[in-house]
Specification:
Blueprint: E1 7-11, H1 14-23, H2 42-57, E2 65-66, E3 73-77
Antiparallel strand pairs: 1-3, 2-3
Helix pairs in contact: 1-2
Length: about 90
Amino acid sequence: MWGEKLRKEFEMTEEELNELLEACKPVPYMLVTGGREMFESPQAKANRVWKRLGEKYGFIWDSCKPCGKGQRIFTAEVIPSNGSIEIKA
């Protein structure tokens, strides 16, 4: 279909999965003077891990979806080779 992004299956390593699961662990909600959070939120930490995985494996980090084949396997939109052309099937 025209304008549809190409999705591909990816598999992260066991170490990468452990890093992602560790990032998702809850942290205390504490504020410092000025209203800033003392600790980075689990969502922000998980996003940072996904961004790093996206750079490593060549996918758009916020396009990941589970594929039902286990925790380490997922699908995501592939980053086009020149960064601007959409993949047309």
